[in-house]
Amino acid sequence: MTQQLGRRGTQSRRRDALGNREAILSAAAAVFSERGRAVDVREIARRAGVGMGTLYRHFPSKDALIETLLADSYARWVEEARRSARERPTAWEALAGFVSEALTYQRRDRALLENLASATTDAAGLSVCQRSLRPLVAELVAAAHAEKALREGVTAEDVLGLLAALGRLVELDLPTIPRCLDIALTGLRHGPALGG
């Protein structure tokens, strides 16, 4: 009997811990999407309805929390992008659609926007971005090259850099975003071969 009570108590604590973790992730996702990385973790704990000790038991640092959220955000984005790419009639349309949809995705998620923007200068940001997006972008670039629809010499790294650069326009909320996107896509498709 005591053993059963102990097991029930353990299961109850596990459910509570999982519930707390989910509450923290949900609160953090909302706050980071709205305000970016600069938000104080006390605000996240408050919104999640947990204490700071609980937050730090699950995530030993703000960076650990951000990395967990970014991995989840990138995973959802990649899944949506793969589904969207399969629905496009050509590899070029799949790649162009991905770049265009990336701007919408960055607009919805400020933490993702900041990570993509920092991926060109920050090793930690680069690693999350590279692990998550690079395989998909490499597939899209290879398919567009196989179709002879992509400018010779364009690499996955070029497209990732372009996403980071266009993300800066999203961050500034400039009205020229559609025009700049069109210029960027034209540059990916047409022009002399790029050297290494």
Can you describe this structure?
It is a single chain. The chain is mostly helical. It has 9 helices and no strands. It has helices at residues 2-35, 41-48, 52-58, 62-87, 91-108, 110-118, 123-146, 156-172, 177-189. Helix 1 crosses helix 4, helix 4 packs antiparallel against helix 5 and helix 7 packs across helix 8. The longest helix has 34 residues, at 2-35. It is elongated and about 60 Å long. The chain starts with a helix and ends in a 7-residue tail after the last helix.
Structural class: mainly alpha
- The helicity comes to over 70%
Poorly predicted runs of 5 or more residues: none
Termini Cα gap: 71 Å
Largest sheet: none
Percent of residues in beta strands? under 5%
Mean pLDDT: 83
The H-and-E topology, N to C, reads as: HHHHHHHHH
Overall, the morphology is: elongated
Query: What is the gyration radius calculated from CA atoms?
Result: 21 Å
The number of distinct β-strands equals 0
Number of helical segments with 4 or more residues: 9
Quick summary of this structure?
The chain is mainly α and 196 residues long. The chain contains nine helices and no strands. 80% of the residues lie in helices and 0% in strands.
Give the arrangement of secondary structure elements:
Layout: H1 2-35, H2 41-48, H3 52-58, H4 62-87, H5 91-108, H6 110-118, H7 123-146, H8 156-172, H9 177-189
